[in-house]
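My current task is to audit a protein record that another person submitted. I need someone to confirm that the token line plausibly describes how this chain folds. Take the sequence as given and treat only the tokens as open to question. This is what I was given:
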Amino acid sequence: MGDNVDDDSLYTIKEGDYVVLKRGDVFKAVQIQTKKKVIFEKQWFFLDNAVGQLYSTTFELASGGILQPRKPKDPESSTDTKGAGTDNRNIQDDGKSQKLTRDDIETLKEQGLKGQEIIQQLIDNSSTFKDKTEYAQDKYIKKKKKKYENIVTILKPSCRILAMMYHGREPGKICHLRYDTLAQMLTLANIHANSKVLVFETCAGLVLGSVMERMGGFGSVIQMYPGGGPVRAGVESFGFPAHFHDTLHEFPICHLNALIAGTLDTTAKDPSADLKESDMAAEVKTEAEVKTEAEQKGSPEDQSMETNSGADGSLVPKKEEEEEKRREAKAQEKKVKQEEKRKKLAAAASLLEGRNADGLVIASRFNPCPVLMALLKFLSPSRPFVVYSQYKECLIECYTKLKEQGGTVNLKLTDYWLRHYQVLPNRTHPVLLMSGGGGYLLSGTTVVGGGSKPAASRRDEEPAPKRQKVTETEG
């Protein structure tokens, strides 16, 4: 029984969970917080009533921004079409067929009519609806449902849903990475539990979160990041448990050359941080000096007040003491952060020093060639790697260099194409609007061995018997 309760809790919406709101083909990731207004598709509501409900539940938006679980559809109360025509050629779309005006529809909304009832009113007051064909009527009803039905479905975040959300709303943030290409990346990189994976990505944390989801909280993931710190906005949207984050490590890509050369010192403090601290102290001191000078140059009344306050209890030293305490607190907090950063760097460096990673995933808006050549040294033999780019030219460069350098086999440069189909009775056809491309992937496997030799040197090293035989034939 306990196992069943635990299983049910996994599918129950709880306060603090990260969820994905869905309406039609639009998604949005939010966190469940009580008494917090959420704006989605020009509607505002509260998610308080969603707590305790199951994931994938569809809610109706009531007055006051309150969500109510949607009741199952009654087939008898479905939209009444009242017959259909056989031809649409005589129907004129002049905007005069609908008797209800926008003010009338707003009045119906104020009266508390639901979306289904408003749609039925629109059908009853349309002079051309009965003359439309059955297919045209269905299309009309779907269009009106999308506009007037205030329903929201709450989904559990997953790799596929978040990839569709980013690709639909902000594709530039994830380098236009489509979800089918992301699935191919996870498969080609052989991501599984209890493995050590290197990830270098600039896709808002979507690829990193997908790798962590596939590993299930077992193993270790080392994120190689450019800049001052790692970007993990997409990882937070997954809502992983705490033990998932224990497997995540980070390493700045700027220290990679020092790690390869063996000159990286993870025990010493960062000298640039000390310089920043001294500069900050100097700036604070200068500001204090400026303030004291301004106070000294004040009016005689202010000076008399300062002397009186100094005699009574000295307000100025109290301010200085408070500023000193704030400075000390900031310095202490900065020292703690630096120590945590140093420990994380040392832990990631110790994992990389073994050079026994099980996989490599690169998805970046930068040129991946130098990063790929450097990170391949940390993979064990017979391990897969995959590189994503929106453009094929940089992957062609990677392919050429890997062929020249050697140490890799089964190199493939591929692009992926996806087409959606509308599947309805007598109306199955490809969807008219779709994405033009899903980017390009370069995949391969590492092997033991030195670099390959040029083709000219291989021709010069032909077997001696063969050269003798050719000479005898010529003679």
Remarks:
- The CA atoms of residues 436 and 449 lie 40 Å apart.
